[in-house]
Amino acid sequence: MDSFKISEKNLKIVEKQMGRKMNNKIEVASYCKYGYPVTIKNYPIINKKPFPTMYWLTCPYLNDEISKLESKNYIEKIQEKIDENSEMLNELKSAHEKEIKQRLEIIEKEIEKLPEPMQKTLKEKGIGGISDFKYIKCLHLHYASYLSGNENPIGKEVDKLLEKRYCDNCICCDFEKQGMV
């Protein structure tokens, strides 16, 4: 789909943030207060294979902060909240369904041309390729979804846990200052 566009500068920044070349169609889904990419939106098909992870968190600072939360067992703690709260569980299921809908809207002209197993994956897998919508796989996925404008209850919980959404010593600013982008 032609709507997936990213400037050369943002592509270089995302590649520095991710530590690798991006070989898929992407666009920036959200920016930090410094104007650098925080999340990207991925095209649902890469190298003729389904890629159900719509949103990726690219910000090195936020990735580190969320990894710290995961190391403190916040996946389990938030999972307990979901298990005990039917409203939150319904919000989570709705977030998965909305991302599936967004994914299918992107590839609406291509979906029927794909092999049946690929169609099934793209039509049924939720955020980050999750099959069972009541379980959390990773906080990064849900936070990327949330920052990209989706009503994701896990992302919302993560947002509450973070002391701040941005770094004080911007790594991405350093990329630019050092002429890396």
Layout of secondary structure:
Elements: H1 8-18, E1 26-31, E2 37-42, E3 45-46, E4 49-50, E5 55-57, H2 60-71, H3 74-84, H4 86-106, H5 116-124, H6 139-147, H7 153-161, H8 171-177
Antiparallel strand pairs: 1-2, 2-5, 3-4
Please provide a written account of the structure.
The mean pLDDT is 93. The two termini are 26 Å apart. With 181 residues, the protein is mainly alpha-helical. It is built from eight helices and five strands; from the N terminus they run H-E-E-E-E-E-H-H-H-H-H-H-H. Strand 3 and strand 4 form a beta hairpin. It has one domain.
List keywords for this structure.
8 helices, mainly alpha
Alpha-carbon distance between the two ends: 26 Å
- How many domain modules? 1
Low-pLDDT stretches are none
- How many H/I helices? 8
Could you tell me the strand content as a percent range? Answer: 5-15%
DSSP E strands, number: 5
Radius of gyration: 17 Å
Secondary-structure content class: mainly alpha
The major beta sheet can be summarized as: 3 strands, antiparallel
- Mean pLDDT across the residues is 93
What spatial order of strands do you see in the largest sheet?
Answer: 1-2-5
Inertia-based shape: flat
Report helical residue fraction: 40-55%
N-to-C series of helices and strands: HEEEEEHHHHHHH
